[in-house]
Amino acid sequence: MTLVEEPAAATPEKEIGRARRRKEDARLITGRTTWTDNMVLPGMLHLAIVRSPVAHARITNVDVSAAQQAPGVIAVFTGADLAEEQGSLPCAWPVTPDMVNPGHPSVAVDEVNHVGEAVAVIVGRSKVAAQDAVELVDVDYDLLPVVLDMEEAVKDGADLVHDHTSANTSYHFVFDAGEAGTGADTEQAFADAEVVVSRRLINQRLIPAFMEPRSVVVQPQGDNYTLWSATQIPHILRVMLAMVTGVPEHKLRVIAPDVGGGFGGKITPTPEEVLTLLVARRLGKPIKWTETRSESLMTAHHGRDQIQYIDIAADREGNVKGLRVRLLADMGAYLRLITPGIPALGAFMFPGIYKFPAYRFECDGVFTNKVPTDAYRGAGRPEATFAIERIMDELAVELGMDPLELRRKNWIRAEEFPFTTVAGLQYDSGDYDGATQAALELLGYDELRAEQQRRRESGDPVQLGIGFSTFTEMCGLAPSRVLGSLSFGAGGWESASIRMLPTGKVEVVTGSTPHGQGHETAWSQLVADHLGVPFEDVEVLHGDTAISSKGLDTYGSRSLVVGGTAVVKAAEKVVAKARKIAAHLLEASEDDLEFSGGKFSVRGTPGTGLGIQEIALAIFAAHNYPEGVEPSIDAEATFDPENFSFPHGTHICAMEVDTETGFVKIRKYACVDDVGTIVNPLIVEGQVHGGLAQGIAQALYEEAVYDADGNLTTGTFVDYLVPSAADLPHFDTGNTVHEATSNPIGAKGVGEAGCIASTPAVVNAAIDAVRHLGVSDLRMPLTPERVWRALHEGGDGA
Ligand code: MCN
């Protein structure tokens, strides 16, 4: 455990690198803050949603007469009532030019395509009145065949999710390194290979399961609207809602107050945000909608859900020669904001940290009668990392090599950076060997391997296994020139502005919208160092389009790398402006001034001079400013990196498997991550812990399961097993530091790393424990039943 204690010194030399406790903690941890559902407005009405109990059906009649008469009900709207104005929810990532997008109504008009889809909305004087009336809406459904299995769905003649399309495939995306000029011919590589190992892997459907349920409040004031939402993307949401509903953008203010987690689950404009806005516009009254936990699990978008066919080619000495990946990626019933792009993003990460000479990736985005998928922590990269790190283990077994030796033989060496991969990405910096050595030491590898041997030899019913994941990921989303070529939505820049108030206090406005990541603290540290002001004198404002009009929000572990750099750039401009004023006030030349510790002084006379905070007051009070300089110290900056950032690390899991019960237990978990320059070690460690919890949850606990009729059978937290701290092991974490070259801070993102890396380490460990008993695959999550079945009946246990 490398938790860094907060130093005792009140004013340390440098803020960057200091393990500050988060400014936000008191209000977030106690819950005493403004969550959207806490909002109470005079005359506010409440919305409840009538949802489809069937997965696929034509709607033949919606009878709302009883609901309209119910006590406390103000209005009821069906899909037909809102058909003219509801538009279609946006999908901003056309993966191929011919991608099929069936359109996504916020409330169904003719047809429902997944259980939980909205069919009508009820507005009540109270939440209870609205919810009670849901039962009174009588909908006639003409049932249609339900499409759930992707392998069946892509067969010729399969039943269709959308009968106005010709197939269930939304798009067929191909990346071929041979054709792209980044690698050799893949088919040839496989034809020439001495060893080929193939696997069909299931990366199961997951539910983001954020703590704060989704909630929306809309307040109309004339033709102006203020919309509060528990969203990750207030800026993008405002643009999208304006486009979908026709409410002019300048008449719509979007506020994301404190948001209790998102994990990618709040990255997309939702039907409920559209509906709340439309109904508020119709009625001219404030409206609130807050989901129940069951609604959340059933209708907030899901993540992952891929069938992966992966082939790896190598020679007998263990040099990898080629990689071939084919994916079926479940889109669910509709395309949300970045649904189709997630597997395509993963395309660039399947080669991992290895020097493959040849690579081909193909993916079908497949419609099914399930809730749409979209981002979930890591989005595309955990799936890719799982596949490559699993197949590396299988190749090692085939070759009779140690799994780490095989990895070491093929990974990019420290001296080879920058390195352009077979997928065309340029990895800028790192040392995979260094991180691995450090992780092995943290784990106590040699002792555990010896224990594993002893247990095998003695036939102990509890076997021990060790699993690796030596990973990298692309984050810090990202260069607009790359994103712009992939999407019709926004680029990847971020914006910040800084203003020094007359008393020398500092306001920072950021376009990065945190929902638990601690930006207020980290940004204050950046500003304190760059302006030389006390950390406590900095206030960070965010999440309100009336305050921060420009921004691209928080996802893809982009905030520090892109948004933090915008803050640094704005700080540099502030210093430059203050320098002009200081030179004027000190009657010196700008070139003769030094700036250190927040003070301008004439070179050679340290200790004298003017503090930047004093200058702020001087310029406000005396209006004594040089010609051509405005009487304020403020600046705005945007930053758009040249490249993604590529954190990397080595995660090692030691796992006990009880061969009699199938019960698995993580004995030890060690990881060493390289996230470049660390601004706040405490936050970084927290992010790694949270990511590990979610990655381990995928390996061991979580799966969204549908029955044959398309009902979600894991619709409560009793069935969908989100682990608590008590279900997780102690984590031994550490860092190496190789600065990123794509931003001046030198930072790489950390928000998703733990989640991306951990899943394959856990599964590899479990398989390693029982491979000598004939198990070579285990289906996630590794429930005791599955592990037991794999041990006693063969296969992957599913
Ligand atoms: N940081 C740092 N030094 C680094 C990298 C990051 O000090 N080298 C700090 C940053 O200053 C920031 C935090 O770590 O305070 C996370 O930074 P970053 O990696 O830039 O990630 P983002 O802030 O962009 O957060 C997004 C990421 C994603 S994509 C998901 S999903 C996720 C995550 O963050 N969802 C979260 N972490 C979450 N944490 C909480 N509590 N809740 C969520 O919903």
From TrEMBL:
Keywords assigned by UniProt, alphabetized: Molybdenum, Oxidoreductase
Domain of life: Bacteria
Chain intervals with Basic and acidic residues compositional bias: 12-22
Cofactor: Mo-molybdopterin cytosine dinucleotide
Short name of one Pfam family: Ald_Xan_dh_C
InterPro entries: Ald_Oxase/Xan_DH_a/b, Ald_Oxase/Xan_DH_a/b_sf, Ald_Oxase/xanthine_DH-like, AldOxase/xan_DH_MoCoBD1, AldOxase/xan_DH_MoCoBD2, AldOxase/xan_DH_Mopterin-bd_sf
Cited SUPFAM superfamilies: CO dehydrogenase molybdoprotein N-domain-like, Molybdenum cofactor-binding domain
GO molecular function annotations of the record: iron ion binding; oxidoreductase activity
Region: Disordered, residue numbers: 1-22
SMART domains in the record: Ald_Xan_dh_C
Chain ranges of the Aldehyde oxidase/xanthine dehydrogenase a/b hammerhead domain: 30-145
PANTHER family: ALDEHYDE OXIDASE 1-RELATED (PTHR11908:SF132), XANTHINE DEHYDROGENASE (PTHR11908)
Record protein name field: Carbon-monoxide dehydrogenase large subunit
Organism of origin: Blastococcus colisei
